[in-house]
Amino acid sequence: VKHPEIRAGRNTKDFGTGFYCTVIKEQAQRWAKRYDDKIVSIYEVRLNTHLNIKEFKDMTDEWLDFIIDCRSGKPHQYDIVIGAMANDQIYNYVSDYIDGAITREQFWVLAKFKYPTHQIVFCTDAAMKTFQISDKIKEVSRIGIGCMRITGLPDEKAVRELIDGAMELGINFF
After folding, report:
1. Is residue 19 within 8 Å of residue 128, measured between CB atoms?
2. Residue 90 CA to chain centroid, in angstroms?
3. CB distance 80 to 107 below 8 Å
4. Beta strands at 80-83 and 19-21: parallel, antiparallel or unpaired
5. Report field, pTM of the whole predicted structure over 0.85
6. Which whole-number Å values give the CA distances from 82 to 16, 103, 117, in the listed order?
7. Out of 13-17, 113-117, 135-139, 167-171, which region has the weakest mean confidence (pLDDT)?
């Protein structure tokens, strides 16, 4: 996607309206299979510390409630939201919980992932300005660096040092 955009549509997305990305290569490839072109785009992201970023480090009650609100169409104030995704099977459990068919405790027993998931959602125009499609990277490295906790670094300088250090070592998959 050379010119990504935020598209308002159905309210069934985990973190609401936005442009959805992931740092997990296999997940990006699974997402790409849903389309005719089946292309995985690679972006360079420079997070702006002035943006309102919400990161769910784990699947928690707060994460579950946030997804329920977003999938119900309730807006939020975040520019970027980061966290695990509720795939179709997980969302079936969410629906069962909303309908009262299962308790919250039963939801958590059923919701254990078989494989890790991750999503970064760019929700506002300001957030969309933090990344661009990469024309420098011709091939993705076989080793990647997980960035789920990148917002936990003390400042933008620490984030930059992490990314620059990885790039110097030939790691370009984040």
Report:
1. yes
2. 16
3. no
4. unpaired
5. no
6. 12, 26, 11
7. 135-139
